[in-house]
Design a protein that fits this description.
6-stranded mixed β-sheet; 5-stranded parallel β-sheet; Glucose-6-phosphate isomerase; G6P_Isomerase; cytoplasm; isomerase; SIS_PGI_1
Length: 538
């Protein structure tokens, strides 16, 4: 497989020592020319070292890689997840389309019927028509892992200002402390437990589900009456005791990390109500329409992807910091870690050949301004360049605290400006000279206060964090990951990398219990298992 980034690598070599500020000096309209809008979103990528020639090469790469053709195939229900022979149709759950065919069958009627059942159940619970043994449901515990947890947990926190239903709680880790600490303050008689597992066999989820059932059985005569399931394995949900009217399934063409629009979002629908959930889906559908229709040069998902590829595959920056200046988006970096790193953390192309370049970057981050007092030191003065993606809203949702939101926004813009401009040794020297330093000590102290600058960042700006804008934001990043995957030539929709560890964990359990000797394990694993048995008194 040839390196399709070769022309970009050659171009980058000619501009690698250029300061981004020089681009602004050469083009007074750069902030306008290197930005794009879609609905409420403005994406500014002018604070990067991409020039017109570089963007031309990136756009040509997107054309040559067949992004448009692959995009059309995805939305039309073709089986672009080739290693699993599946369509990729998470977009159908928010689509206004009358009909979408998969294997000749229209998937939209059953999909709409499921959404209607979800809305009816959510309303029945919110209005007190569906009740627990002790009365109206006050708390909902969603038990899942991966996409069955990260999506709704992230979205529920993001929509806190619109929450008007029962309190939502999320359990994912098989560590017993997680479910213990979540259930401890709750009343079993007024708690609903949602078990989210498509196959109803996910070991972490089902272990936690059984623990929750035992907890509830201490008080509730028939605990299954206060359970619901997000699963397509109706035989297994029935065996667990959950009746069909409280089981909501979805097809295998919805991957877990793309599933918050589907029944996996039931907890969110209960928390904010079916109408707000529909607005959440509508915001995503609007981004879908933009992605399908806008030219690549003005297409936000495409531009986000191209900037990401420029920084990672072309310039060699291995990580990407996602920095939302919006506290309710605190879980967004973790959500995007899974979305991008599980999707594009691959080592072979679609045909199974080794990639001749790196695949997806390490994605990480925290909300501002917290991160400023943690890792921004490394971003500003460390030896590695970390491209930053700032996400910020112009207005908060608390009118009486707007002065605080303005301070938040000021911090966001100041950080991107500081990364761009830096502080030269001359400026730092002048500052320290005013403090009375001179000679060798002046130089030493000044050097500690130098900021290299010329560090790239992008800014995604929108008005307020609402269900609509949250939906658009998530869809924007979903499509960004898709575009990056197409250009990299990989399958973004399988996740074989998570399987091996799970298989080995099942084999290790009896070793840790003292029921197997573990002779086949490597020396380190065997020694650790022996010590664990000793500490547990086995």
């Amino acid at each position: 497989m040839m390196n399709r980034f070769a022309p970009l690598l050659a171009h980058a070599e000619t501009v690698k020592d250029r300061h981004i500020l020089d681009l602004f000096a050469a083009d007074p309209e750069r902030a306008r020319d290197f930005a794009a809008e879609a609905g409420p979103f403005l994406f500014d990528y002018s604070k990067t070292n991409i020039d017109a020639a570089g963007m031309g090469l990136l756009l040509a790469l997107a054309d040559q890689a067949g992004v448009a053709e692959r995009r059309a195939a995805m939305f039309s229900g073709q089986k672009i997840n080739e290693t699993e022979n599946r369509a990729v149709l998470h977009t159908a759950w928010r689509s206004p389309a009358e009909s979408i065919l998969v294997d000749g069958h229209d998937v939209m009627p059953p999909l709409r019927a499921t959404l209607a059942r979800m809305a009816e159940f959510a309303n029945a619970l919110r209005e007190g028509r569906y009740r627990g043994q002790g009365g109206a449901i006050t708390d909902v515990v969603n038990i899942g892992i991966g996409g069955s947890d990260l999506g709704p947990a992230m979205a529920a926190l993001a929509c806190t200002a619109f929450a008007n239903g029962p309190q939502l709680h999320f359990v994912s880790n098989v560590d017993g402390a997680h479910i213990h600490d979540t259930l401890a303050p709750l009343n079993p008689e007024t708690t609903l437990v949602i078990v989210a597992s498509k196959t109803f066999t996910t070991i972490e989820t089902m272990t936690n589900a059984e623990t929750a059932r035992v907890w509830m059985a201490d008080v509730v005569k028939n605990p299954a009456t206060q359970f619901a399931a997000i699963s397509s394995a109706v035989d297994k949900t029935a065996a667990f005791g959950i009746p069909p009217e409280r089981v909501f399934g979805f097809e295998d063409w919805v991957g877990g990390r793309y599933s918050v629009w589907s029944p996996i979002g039931l907890s969110l629908m209960i928390g904010i109500g079916p109408e707000a959930f529909a607005r959440f889906q509508a915001g995503a559908a609007a981004m879908d329409a933009h992605f399908l229709s806008a030219p690549f040069s003005a297409n936000l998902p495409v531009l986000l992807a191209l900037v990401g590829l420029w920084h990672n595959q072309v310039l060699g920056h291995a990580t990407r910091a996602v920095l939302p200046y919006e506290q309710r988006l605190a879980r967004l970096p973790a959500y995007l870690q899974q979305l991008e790193m599980e999707s594009n953390g691959k080592r072979v192309s679609m045909d199974g050949a080794d990639l001749p370049y790196h695949s997806g970057p390490v994605v990480w981050g925290e909300p501002g301004t917290n991160g400023q007092h943690a890792f921004y030191q490394l971003i500003h003065q460390g030896t590695r360049v970390v491209p930053c993606e700032f996400i910020v809203t112009a207005r908060g949702l608390e009118p009486d605290l707007e002065h605080q939101h303005l301070l938040l926004v000021a911090n966001c813009l100041a950080q991107s400006e500081a990364l761009l401009r830096g502080r030269a040794l001359e400026e730092a020297t002048a500052i320290m000279r005013k403090k009375g330093l001179e000679g060798a000590e002046l130089e030493r102290q000044a050097r500690h206060r130098v900021f290299p600058g010329n560090r790239p960042s992008t800014t995604l700006l929108f008005d307020q964090l609402t269900p609509e804008t949250l939906g658009g934001l998530i869809a924007l990043y979903e499509h960004r990951v898709f575009v990056e995957g197409v250009i990299l030539g990989i399958n973004s929709f399988d996740q074989w990398g998570v399987e091996l560890g799970k298989e080995l964990a099942l084999a290790l359990a009896p070793v840790l219990e003292g029921k197997a000797d573990g002779a086949a394990k490597d020396g380190s694993t065997r020694a650790l298992a022996e010590r664990i048995r000793e500490l547990r008194g086995l």
